[in-house]
Amino acid sequence: xxxxxxxxxxxxxxxxxxxxxxxxxxxxxxxxxxxGPNGAGKTTxxxxxxxxxxxxxxxxxxxxxxxxxxxxxxxxxxxYVPEEQQLYDSLTPRELFNFIASIRGLPEEKITKRMKEFxxxxxxxxxxxxxxxxxxxxxxQKTMLIAALLHRPKLLILDEPFSSLDVxxxxxxxxxxxIHTENGGSVLLSTHVMEVAEGLCDxxxxxxxxxxxxxxxxxxxxSKSEKEGATLESLFLxxxxxxxxxxxxxxxxxxxxxx
Length: 259
Known about the structure:
It is built from 10 helices and 10 strands. The protein has a domain at about 1-90 and about 145-215: 3-Layer(aba) Sandwich (Rossmann fold). The strands form 2 sheets. Strands 6-7-8-3-9-10 form a 6-stranded mixed beta sheet, sandwiched between helices. Strands 2-1-4-5 form a 4-stranded antiparallel beta sheet, with helices on one face. Helix 8 packs across helix 9. The chain is globular and about 55 Å long. Helices cover about 40% and strands about 25% of the residues.
């Protein structure tokens, strides 16, 4: 079964068409990167997929379940890390995880063991009983990652998951993503870190001004762009027509810094 099917998805905010007729699929066992400039429509697409926003038209399905019609069922299948850190500041991570476990009906003994493993792996044990409001941005990000992984979801949807993570935790997160897919899970990943997408992902979709302008494996993108051996960063800049702007910006900076 295909993990995600998005068909002709459209979402507008007033006169702004944030997502414009986007269609894509994420296969089981696949890591799919959704890339695009700021404001391209990535997060809006993800929020519609999670049932957090209603589309103007089109559909988004997770394992055949329509996100708009059955958002609770979709959330049961997904581990979601949003771009914005949405946490209960007055709780501790322990209280938050126990609350999530109770809402999801997870067995206490399994969750206790699982939490201990995550806490140790992410070097988070000393913050477990601190109020979330007192945590650093990096530790809040770790809290959201653990919360998303507690129920061992079939699908991970990660919107800028490496934001604020230290090098050790980012490496562990990459390994978690790989292990998840090795066990048959799927991942939809939105990130601005091209090196992460290039190193992790099986396929890439590039969205710009609300439209999916290109998708495929890295080799397929290189072939379409006629840039053999190019990095994903270079391909991204070409496909989003930013190469010239970047070159001009660098030239201006070089002149400013050498005066």
